[in-house]
């Protein structure tokens, strides 16, 4: 699968964009999501029982999602407590998520009358990933902040970065809420003056294809997460600890 991914990206990013693309396309390809959506689409095809074992029989939401980060009650005043509970959801668009839609209702009455009941739904992502063509310091810090907020809403969740080209010095992601940062091409970003030069882009793609071993490491991490018991308080006494 990674071999086919490399072939597709070489054709799109080297032969179509770098060689034949207009100056506008080369400059705006990120905003137009011409190249940075490829990994998102690839990950959807990766989540299959041919790759992962132990996938549930019920349907999962897989792929780009607007995923849940936190929920809060925000009454305007004391009188508001007698009406519909005011619920504020914080959500975030993710490049790739694996989870399930959860439906909820809150009411100030046990019979849940319509006029006093707030209903809604949220997409609970237990695993999420951001796909970056280039990763710089600002993007890294933003992703670390997003990962922390995701884990406030779902502490057992995992959050990853999948990066093609590095535009910063590597940092220890263990100091953040990020679970890992995978450097798919083992490569730094091309200097500014070379980024639109066909021969330079082609040379970099040939020298640094997406590494199937790194992709396999990501698969192994996800498989370990699928296989794990995320939390079982009944085992605390056996373990001798809460977690």
List the helices and strands and how they pair.
Blueprint: H1 2-20, H2 23-28, H3 38-46, E1 61-73, E2 87-107, E3 117-135, H4 137-153, E4 158-166, E5 180-188, H5 198-207, H6 212-227, H7 236-239
Parallel strand pairs: 3-4, 4-5
Antiparallel strand pairs: 1-2, 2-3
What do you see in this structure?
This protein has 243 residues and is α/β, with parallel strands linked by helices. The chain has a domain at 2-63 and 126-228. Helices cover 33% and strands 29% of the residues. The protein has helices spanning 2-20, 23-28, 38-46, 137-153, 198-207, 212-227, 236-239; strands at 61-73, 87-107, 117-135, 158-166, 180-188. It has a 5-stranded mixed sheet, sandwiched between helices. Helix 4 links the parallel strand 3 (117-135) and strand 4 (158-166). Helix 1 packs antiparallel against helix 5. The longest helix has 19 residues, at 2-20. The radius of gyration is 22 Å and the shape is globular. The mean pLDDT is 92.
Which sequence of strands runs across the widest sheet? Answer: 1-2-3-4-5
Estimate what percentage of residues fall within beta strands.
Answer: 25-35%
Any low-confidence stretches, pLDDT <50, length ≥5?
none
Structural class: alpha/beta
Tally of contiguous helical segments: 7
Helix content: 25-40%
Our Rg estimate from Cα atoms comes to: 22 Å
Question: How far apart are the first and last residues' alpha carbons, in Å?
Answer: 37 Å
Q: Estimate the global geometry from the Cα principal axes.
A: globular
Q: Order of SSEs, N→C?
A: HHHEEEHEEHHH
How many E strands? 5
Largest sheet: 5 strands, mixed
Mean pLDDT: 92
């Amino acid at each position: 699968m990674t071999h086919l991914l490399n072939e597709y990206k070489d054709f799109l990013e080297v032969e179509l964009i770098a060689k034949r693309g207009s100056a506008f396309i080369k400059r705006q390809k990120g905003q137009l999501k011409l190249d940075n959506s490829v990994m998102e689409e690839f990950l959807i095809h990766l989540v299959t029982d041919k790759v992962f074992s132990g996938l549930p029989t019920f349907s999962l939401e897989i792929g780009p999602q607007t995923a849940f980060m936190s929920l809060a009650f925000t009454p305007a005043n004391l009188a508001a407590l007698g009406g519909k509970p005011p619920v504020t959801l914080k959500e975030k668009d993710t490049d790739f998520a694996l989870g399930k839609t959860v439906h909820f209702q809150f009411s100030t009455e046990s019979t849940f009358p319509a006029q006093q009941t707030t209903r809604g739904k949220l997409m609970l992502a237990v695993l999420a990933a951001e796909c970056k063509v280039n990763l710089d310091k600002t993007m890294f810090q933003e992703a670390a902040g997003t990962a922390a907020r995701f884990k406030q809403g779902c502490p057992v969740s995992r959050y990853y970065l999948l990066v093609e080209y590095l535009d910063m010095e590597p940092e220890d992601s263990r100091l953040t809420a990020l679970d890992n940062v995978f450097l798919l091409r083992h490569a730094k970003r091309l200097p500014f003056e070379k980024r639109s030069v066909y021969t330079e882009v082609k040379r970099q793609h040939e020298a640094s294809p997406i590494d199937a071993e790194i992709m396999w490491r990501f698969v192994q991490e996800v498989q370990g997460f699928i296989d794990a018991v995320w939390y079982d308080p009944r085992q605390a006494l056996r373990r001798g600890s809460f977690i």
